[in-house]
Amino acid sequence: MKNLLPRFLEYVKVDTQSDERFNTTPSTKKQWDLAKKLVQHLHIIGMQEVSIDENAYIMATLPSNVDKEVPTIGFISHFDTTPDFTGRNVKPQVVKNYDGGSIVLNKEKNITLSPDYFKELTNYEGQTLITTDGTTLLGADDKAGIAEIMTAMEYLIQHPDIKHGTIRVAFTPDEEIGRGAHKFNVEKFGAQWAYTVDGSQLGELEYENFNAATATITFKGKSVHPGFAKHKLVNAIGLANEFLNLLPNNEKPEHTEDREGFFHVHHITGEIEHAEIALIIRDHDLEHFNARKALLTAISEKINKQFPESVQVIIKDQYYNMKEKILPNFHIVEIAEEAMKQLGITPIIKAIRGGTDGSQLSFMGLPCPNIFAGGHNFHGKYEYIPLESMEQATLTIVKICELTAQRF
Ligand SMILES: [Zn+2]
């Protein structure tokens, strides 16, 4: 376990920010810098079948050490960091024996990490926290996951008394721009199921996410001189406004939580002859999700009755709730839950209000819930992670391998 922290510190110092403006995989060349290092490290700890493909997807195997047939399972994390906040020149600070008070991240810029605002900090009194210097993100999302998987594999290699089946690991680029699963070769990976180690606080275990779609709604108007417009002019802006008014007012991101779905209008442009609305639809429940899509069509039909062929709705599905693929194989979740319990960790099971690589992978044939990596405040300068949570994540991975071999 002693390599966990140095490994993590080494990984976060490499800038691996992804960028959705580029269509290559990885989207940014600098992701190769860490990818190559990870390949080396996998070799060094003694992993087998270490491979990296032309898109920087890394895979490796820890061979089974039991005689019986045990399902092959996998662990996955991503090495890119979000485009939302700079990941250049990360200078991690290690705060030992955290006293429960405010941590000065940057004296010059007067940036502090305070439990007044980030209440959960007090849970970590006495622990070792890794923070930023207030000018960058940390990159615990998801270099913590990588360091934990790497260290768990090293631990299993060094402790052959712990019995396990074949374990596959994968490190992927471009998760933060929604493309981490796109070029993932599920067949080559060859696992029956896997876990993304990409959750937040200690104990998180997630196997539900949104069903997601985008909708583009276009409105056609008719411009006529406003002085002579009675019964002639059709204002596309007005139609767009009417459309928005017919959406349920409370079903917006700012009014919803937990398992409540929503419509989120994120873009609107308009003039008299043409207007356009872009929105996203999110719902955990598949029936509700479909009802939301049907509502958009119904509203457009209503307006079209009054102003024929003035509204057009184009809906595109983005991803689906992985629950559908996990429930028929629920032992995947039970094993992770049991692993945490045996380690004295209270599992925190909640529905993700977003998507994960795991949800895409689940629909590509690799059921893939998400477990905690231990960090907090992802995607910004207040990001931090307790070393103790990282150790627990590492042990959870080890325990999942062990329990899988026991169960089958
Ligand atoms: Zn992540």
TrEMBL record:
Cofactor: Zn(2+)
Keyword Hydrolase included in the entry's annotation: yes
Domain Peptidase M20 dimerisation: 207-309
GO biological-process terms attached to the record: peptide catabolic process; proteolysis
PROSITE patterns listed in its UniProt record: ARGE_DAPE_CPG2_1, ARGE_DAPE_CPG2_2
Annotated residues for binding of Zn(2+) 2: D141, E176, H379
Keywords per UniProt: Aminopeptidase, Cytoplasm, Hydrolase, Metal-binding, Metalloprotease, Protease, Zinc
Co-factor remark: Binds 2 Zn(2+) ions per subunit.
CDD domains assigned: M20_peptT
Catalytic site positions: D80, E175
GO cellular component term, pick one: cytosol
Subcellular locations according to the entry: Cytoplasm
InterPro entries: ArgE/DapE_CS (IPR001261), Bact_exopeptidase_dim_dom (IPR036264), Peptidase_M20 (IPR002933), Peptidase_M20_dimer (IPR011650), Peptidase_M20B (IPR010161)
Amino-acid positions noted as binding Zn(2+) 1 in the UniProt annotation, renumbered to this chain: H78, D141, D198
Superkingdom field: Bacteria
GO function terms (MF aspect): metallopeptidase activity; tripeptide aminopeptidase activity; zinc ion binding
Key word Glycosyltransferase present: no
Enzyme type, top EC level: hydrolase
Reaction catalyzed: Release of the N-terminal residue from a tripeptide
A UniProt-annotated Pfam family: Peptidase_M20
Primary localisation category: cytoplasm
UniProt-listed Enzyme Commission number(s): 3.4.11.4
Similarity comment: Belongs to the peptidase M20B family.
Role of this protein: Cleaves the N-terminal amino acid of tripeptides.
Protein name: Peptidase T
Species, as recorded: Croceitalea dokdonensis DOKDO 023
